[in-house]
TrEMBL record:
UniProt GO cellular component terms: membrane
Protein name stated in the entry: Acyl-ACP--UDP-N-acetylglucosamine O-acyltransferase
Domain UDP N-acetylglucosamine O-acyltransferase C-terminal residues, every copy: 175-256
One Pfam entry name: Acetyltransf_11
InterPro entries assigned: Acetyltransf_C, Acetyltransf_C_sf, Hexapep, Lipid_A_LpxA, Trimer_LpxA-like_sf
Assigned keywords, A-Z: Acyltransferase, Lipid A biosynthesis, Lipid biosynthesis, Lipid metabolism, Transferase
Record lineage: Bacteria, Pseudomonadati, Spirochaetota, Spirochaetia, Leptospirales
MF terms in GO: acyl-[acyl-carrier-protein]-UDP-N-acetylglucosamine O-acyltransferase activity
GO-annotated biological processes: lipid A biosynthetic process
Keyword set includes Ion transport: no
EC number per UniProt: 2.3.1.129
Amino acid sequence: MKIHPTAIIDPKAELHESVEVGPFCIIEKDVKIGEGTVIESHVKILSGTRIGKFNKLSSGGSYGGLPQDLGFKPETKTYLEIGDHNILRENVVFHRGTVEGKATVVGNHNYLMGNVHLAHDVVVGDHNIMVQNTMLAGHVVIGNKVFISGSVGVHQFVRVADYAMLAGLTKVVKDVPPYATVDGHPGLIVSLNVVGMKRAGISADVRLAIKRVYKVIYHSGLNTKQALAELKKDANPAPEVQKVIEFFESSKRGVVDHRFVSGGSDEE
């Protein structure tokens, strides 16, 4: 291992022989770090943290600290789990879970920029980008290939579905459905994430079908239950369309509203 002499590593921490640790880092006991991970200077990794392979942790980060939950008992055994191939930039702060034996989870191939905060029990999927000063409250769930712009705040227990995009400075207090772009205070759907869908290889026909789904839900004059019943009359929907329907059906917080559109929809 390439470990700077100023780093302090508990002998009970488990680091793969290829891990690199920079100056003035602190790694506590009951930490596991996988192959090829590089840790820059002034990083603190606390007990209960599990970090996978080929991650890069930039300077100043804090991983696996006690949850900021007034009811949490410090002796509760919980974890922070980080997957593989993540780039975690300067001064990010991730807290471990609150439920005995459970974890705050970060998946694979995510790029989280400086000062991103993940609170307790957050779950982040794969291939997501979070820009500077993103703040996720407790129990937030982020899907896959989500783009979150700078200084976005997401309320506790909110879900943000695959291929969603959150514009800068947005306040998110309800669930964000797949393929939607959300902006404002509070956040409202302002369009579909067409660029994200094109990059994902979603065909024009399927994009049009998704657009029609959102028109039925938000612009048909039906309530959500009625709109979903109407959409489910299609016996063979595209998987992407089915994903939207299932998301609305499973929402517990409610789904974000659409901004008022005069003279029709501007989703694409």
